[in-house]
Amino acid sequence: MGINKGHEFSRRDIYVRYDSEDVSYRWDHRKAEIHVRFDGEAESPEPVPHDNRLFNDALRFGHEISREEYESGWPPRP
What is the C-alpha to C-alpha distance for residues 41 and 35, in angstroms, rounded to an integer? Predict the structure, then answer.
């Protein structure tokens, strides 16, 4: 279904999972920054550009996850 960058992006942090590429993203609405976390790795210290193809594909084809799911890594721990 996809995730719209509209109103929600301006009011809260958003966490997105893109299973096809084994990656998750965190949108920090206060800093207007995107952060990436590939499966089995820590979050990248550098923000991702807003026009990053993989991030935008994740918005189109991924799904929203919780902060806890993002922080625990993927796949979720039992």
Answer: 13
Q: Which residues contact 77 (CB under 8 A, 6 or more apart)?
A: none
At 16-56, the pLDDT tens digits run 999 999 999 999 999 999 999 999 899 999 999 999 999 99
**What pLDDT, on the 0 to 100 scale, is given for residue 78?**
53
CA separation for the pair 45, 62 (Å, rounded) = 22
Distances from the Cα of 23 to the Cα of 5, 11, 13, 47, 48, angstroms: 18, 23, 17, 14, 13
| Cα 53 to Cα 2, 50, 61, 75, distances in angstroms | 14, 9, 12, 23
pTM (two decimals): 0.89
d(CA 20, CA 10): 27
